[in-house]
Amino acid sequence: GLSTWKVSTNRLGGIMHSAPVIVGTKTRVSGSRDEIAYVGDLYGMLHAIETASGREKWAFIPRNLLGKLKNDRTDPNAVQDFAGVDASPTAKDVYYDHDGDGDEWRTILAGSEGFGGTSIYALDVSDPDNWFPLWEATDTQAPGGGMGHANSVAIDKVKYPVRDVDDVDGDDDTDEIIGYEIKWVVFVSTGFAQIAVDHGGINVFAFDLTTGDKLWHFSAEYADSVNDIPGAATVYDLDGDSFVDRVYVGDMNGRMWELDAIDGSNPNGTEGTGDDTKQIPLYNVGIGHPISVSPAILRSGGHTILVFGTGGANWAADDQTYAIYAVDATTKQSVPTYAGGAGTLLWKVDLAAGEKVWSTPTVAYGYIFVATAFGSMEGSDPRQDAPVTGQPSGNFLKLKLADGALAWKLTDIGKIRGSIFVDRQHAYMTTVDGQIIQIGGEDFGAGTGSRVQLQTWRQF
Fold first, then answer.
1. Which tens digit of pLDDT belongs to each residue from 115-169?
2. What share of the chain is helix, strand, coil (3-state, %, to 5)?
3. What 3-state DSSP class applies to 311?
4. Among candidates 122, 98, 94, 118, which has minimal Cα distance to 110?
5. Bridge partner residues of 157 (DSSP)
6. d(Cα 109, Cα 126) in Å, to the nearest integer?
7. Cβ(82)–Cβ(71) below 8 Å
8. Do 144 and 131 touch, CB atoms closer than 8 A?
9. Which residues contact residue 67 at a Cβ distance below 8 angstroms, ignoring those fewer than 6 apart?
10. Across-strand partners of 437?
11. 379 φ, ψ to 5°?
């Protein structure tokens, strides 16, 4: 054992669900800046760390977490309500008027708090030496008590209709559209803040990036008591005009939702009447098959295709069979139903019993790369999630995009958590027990994974 303790003068809380976002030196924003990695921790802070040196520039604590900082995670007697920025931040260069002097490019970072809180925030990090908060927001009006916990947010722009609210043309129609404006929006999907009776549900929100004002929300109740964090909202431009048209998000009841990015309406309509009315999803896998991660979205032959997997939850049964799906969001059913959804299933790949998808599939070079894992990924003690000798850990699959046929598979590669990065005929992924794996060759030929060397690191 250790004979002495190492005293660290600059400590970092544990990082669990927060994937760093790298904001580089190359930017539309004028001037030069350091490359910064932004990442959240389990102790209520978003950290800004120089990638070149590993030195921390600063940390940000959202206002709603200040009162929870006193609850020490290491104290078993502490109130079990801990501050955390346990979610992946998002950054984007945004062209808008931030100071009343006309539009200009700014780099905006936005994020959520995972199980650490129920707010979202936005920061201007155009200059990491002179950053400033823009706003923090939550919601208490949506069903289930409003905004629940979220794993990440999305930032993009919509072509927002301008209505003749002042009846300028004198035709008594104040709802008519007289033009369009560019509106930058933050999208986020959450569970319910509170479980109503014995049900949870999904809430999806859109907030104005410039003001933090809520633009719309969509809600759907669950048919059982699961109220876990749903898959992150993914936005998509259907017509190639650079404005997003759709928001796609999966939920913990196995439904993949398709929403209008401008107003949050469901283009697939409803089924039933009165109290029995149900929103029709794009696709419905069924209860007990949670969709806990974002879909991969691509355009093929003029059609919008979503690829996603199921099973990514600790409570999902280990003797159940989960699957990877490809759904056509363009070709709709002539008579859509709640049970089946409105989209068209292109193919389905069944996995082994207890084999679950915890990460978003990656589409590259006409193939789909996806990792699976067996057993726990969200244990109260992280040691419970480590692979067990003699038991399957997880697989790495390469599937043909056209029909889902298996090109090859690497077995027992580890329990992969997070999406796979594919670049220059190599794939990179991380395991739940902290290993970085590199796979690939000239043609992505199957083989054993190799561990990569770290370029930079920071010791705490």
1. 999 999 999 999 999 999 999 999 999 999 999 999 999 999 999 988 888 878 8
2. 5, 40, 55
3. strand
4. 122
5. 184
6. 9
7. yes
8. no
9. none
10. 429, 451
11. -65, 150
